[in-house]
Amino acid sequence: MVKYLDNNGSGFAAWNAAQSQGTKKTRSKFSTFVWWFVIFLATWWLLGKWMEPKQAPVISDTDAAIIANDTTNVPEQTISSDKLVAKVRGIRISNVELSDFQNSVQSDDMTRVSLLGNTNDFAEVGFIATGTTAPDAKTVWQKSNGKTTWRNSDGIIFSRDINVDGYLVTITDTIENKTKQSVSFAPYVRMVRSGLKSDSAAVSTGAIARVNSKIQYVDWHKMDKKSYAYSTTNGFIGFADQYWETVANVKSADQTMQIKSVGKKYVAATTAAPVAIAPADRAVFTTTLFMGPRDQAILDSAATTISGIDDTIDYGWFWFFARPILWLLNTLNALVMNYGIAIILMTLLLRLLMWPLTRKSYVSTLAMQRMQPELQRIQKLYANDKMRLQMEMMNLYKTHKTSPMSGCLPMLLQIPIFFALYKALLVSVQMRNAEFLWIRDLAAMDPYFILPILIGATMWLQQYLQTAKVKKDNNSDNPIAQTQKFMKWMPVLFTIMFAWMPAGLVLYWTVSNIFGIVQMFIIKKRLEKK
Fold it and tell me: Which of the residue ranges 46-60, 460-474, 492-506 has the most confident prediction, judged by mean pLDDT?
């Protein structure tokens, strides 16, 4: 990333040198930067406080009792599809196992990924009744003709049908009012689970809600501090981990949602507007749960049933790069059947696309090196005349047909690609447990630090090749010399920084560096022939 800065011909170094002339008595640029940075952080904090949802009502003592309800007397049944298997006890669904995903790639570990699998983790789909009673977590239902039914003491009949299609679980409830008075029921979903705070890894995890067509994220630590409440005309609520999510959608126009912590558990609940049922009438309620991987293709398909679920993956600021990059990675992997090789091929494709820009940048860097003696001469000659110095420097750039910024264009272009790929690797469930050579998981750090060391070595080699024929300046007051001394430490800093980053990202940057070195030799040989 910094190979274009570490030479006497660097446009940034020359610009800094020009800017530093005649400004020794002015305020330090560093102090100005610090002040602006402090102002930015303060503004960000104030806006965050102002836009935070208002605190929800204080958690009642009944919350913990509801979660801890003993359901062992409720008969258990199994629901399944080709994608998942889950346990159902009355109105609660838990222990969801994903058939296509193992916990580990180790051959001796064949256990499947489990959602809502801890003690007292569940998704509860029920009703709040007015004028009568509704089934609760301890209610024992009767099963007949593929449906489960329950009749309360007033004679109201509840029938439940559960259909599983892929990762979608659709619960259809029919309530028949056999009484002589009107009653009302408000459908709700209460999702309870433990938090996996170690799974964050720069990805939005915790509670997730779709409120008035916007996705809201509330991480685990925020739920520890306060509760959140929302009102929405349509939406869903649930939890999201790095690779998995469990969300619930009640088919109702008006809903009230709540996110909170109860003891060591986290609760995401939504309650729809009550529906009145006249005597001898019936009402049908539909609730859909998605319990599966955060795979964009799968979520796109699920969005036909749960609107907006395809927007739940957080791709970061550079989402417009991240999604195409992820698509390209998956396409290449489908051809070569290995994500490590797919990353290498993607890197080569991206560098080939940037070849004209990189060539122009390298030619500009060579021009800056050739003009270095003249540049140093005019810097000394007009050291006390800032306006004249800038004018002479601009004339010099025109003569050599170059500019201070031209050598930095490839670096600037790689910044959004870098962050987009970083996000794409972290959110890609396909990258989880993807193996390449000695690496068992490309979404995790290199266990032997081989790739980070290669990054440092290739970066050092790039800097060496860039500065090999440049005369060094030992003047400690020269900004160019100071920049050179600082840049010598960049390979070490980058090695340390990349040591704990996803191995797939480090592989991309290492291959990019190697390609850059080869490209440098090719361009240089072509220029020497002219």
Answer: 492-506
